[in-house]
Amino acid sequence: MSGAALGLEIVFVFFLALFLLHRYGDFKKQHRLVIVATLLAWYLCFLIVFILPLDVSTTIYNRCKLAVNSSPAESNGSYVTLAPSKQKCFKPWSYIPDGIMPIFWRVVYWTSQFLTWILLPFMQSYARSGGFSITGKIKTALIENAIYYGTYLLIFGAFLIYVAVNPNFNLQWNQLQTIGIAAANTWGLFLLVLLLGYGLVEIPRSHWNGAKRGYLLMKTYFKAAKLMTEKADAEENLEDIMEEVRKVSESIKYNHPLRKCVDTILKKCPTEYQERMGRNMDDYEDFDERQNSYPSEKSLAKLHKQVIYSVQRHRRTQVQWQILLEQAFYLEDVAKNESSATRQFVHTFHSQEPENKIIQYFYTPTVEWYWECLLRPWFYRALAVMLATFSVIVVWSECTFFSTKPVLSLFAVFIQLAEKTYNYIYIEMACFLTIFFLSICVYSTVFRIRVFNYYYLASHHQTDAYSLLFSGMLFCRLTPPLCLNFLGLTHMDATISHKNTQPTAYTSIMGSMRVLSFIADGFYIYYPMLVVILCIATYFSLGTRCLNLLGFQQFMGDSEMTSDLIDEGKELIRREKRKRQRQEEGENRRREWKERYGNRDESTRSRAVHTDQKESSFSETNANRSLSKYTRSNGRTERDRIELLQDAEPLDFNADSVNDDPLESDSGR
């Protein structure tokens, strides 16, 4: 089993990252480089989270071997027996041989850092560029990132000059590398605590509110009102952009040098707009450079960028509106079925997508009623209580993990108790659950936050390339400090435990933070305590209230604006529901008509076809008879008949001579 667990987790994490990327990205429409870069960033970050517990169990076993080697011992097969206490050091089932983990962590860490600080920012600017060639997009991306890269180079250069001038510093390359890692982890830890403080409260609260049917339905109405406003704004913006494209397309003709750029813009427009512009354009007019003023290539690149953004936003709002309608209809069905005496779930509308037969067999209407109306609220409440308990443990451990005597961090207590008995399964499960919960709190916040329309992760393949790349940057910057924080909570980091023991392979790659004592003994220890203040602010919804005061409507139960938006959303859902019902009634009537009169129409149609066949055969026989009647044995040759046919002229039909008035036709006669 040596190394098998590592290989299995590498494969599993890859498919997990691929599944999530398929849910949010669009493999068919988005550029392959964007998909590959985002997949690599997500994959590396998820891989660190899943592999770190194996590193912890392997480190504990290596510490046991070092303790055995430093004392008289007896070797016995796969474990080592201490002579004085007869203690056994079993090899864990997921043991990774020496030398593999340091190389693995070095490759994963530096690849993720290259992605987040160099490649992904460049690809962001490249993806949002409106250039018409690869060279133009690269040039735009370099110009936009010049300030970004120049700032880091300036800071790093100033630091090197300070170190070279100051005689008290005698830094080597390894120490400079550690300082760079510490700077990146400090930036990541600053953002990590902000996101963690929000997720520790919001995740249990969202599951607790998920058990409230009325709450979910009111929030859906609120979302419907906001989304309808955004949808109308997106449609209006798209109309304005398409009007500009139409003007540009009509002014720049087919033989203009910039016509290729216009054609590229037209390909990004929706199909209905392309057809409308194609009908109204006369490409056979020559352009006159002296009479008309034509846009420049720079302005066309800007228009191209606006078209890409407006089309993506319009498509996203359309899809989200349909998804929100389905959620609202389903929640209304749940509210109606709660008082059902038959205890069978009845849907107002049938699902538009074909359901799996296996799911239909097991998830019957009766099972659906018991789950949705009876079991699901209690399950969500129990899950919310469990998550809230976990959040309290995390907050307590974040505030006390620096204490080693006595050990106050509960995660460190659990790991140390398991380490005494060398229960590696328990160690790995405890480590995995701890770091998995921390990752869920941080990563779910990344998926939830929205920075206006520039960064927004929308499911159902509606996330643009810029947001996908930005999420990859955030994951790569947040994961290393998240793992270091986890090792500090469990006292597996020698900087926190102050023990001269073998560090984990991950910590050895990070280097000793003693080079910067004010960061190792100050910022890394006391800054995570800020999570308490952030949790309190999130619990009382201080951020939501501030956004509401600034004019960004947020869902608040005690707000008059929220009540108005709920009423508006309720009316919108009712209107869409009536429209859907009329459509289904029309389809049912057409289906009944086909079932009732379909056979009669088919018989009538077959009878008419049979009659036409008889008439055609009768006409063919008459034609053959007349042809044989007028054909002579000694008639003209084939050439004479062709000449006669060529001399014959058809009658000229003049449409002007046709008149509907019978009086005028009589007078004409």
From TrEMBL:
Biased amino acid composition, Basic and acidic residues: 582-617, 635-644
Pfam families for the chain: LMBR1
Stretch list, region Disordered: 576-669
Keywords: Coiled coil, Membrane, Transmembrane, Transmembrane helix
Any single GO BP term: adrenergic receptor signaling pathway
InterPro entries: GPCR-associated_LMBR1, LMBR1-like_membr_prot
Membrane-crossing residue ranges in chain numbering: 6-21, 33-52, 103-126, 146-165, 177-201, 378-396, 425-446, 466-489, 523-542
Compositionally skewed regions (Acidic residues) per UniProt: 658-669
Family: Belongs to the LIMR family.
UniProt name for this protein: LMBD2 protein
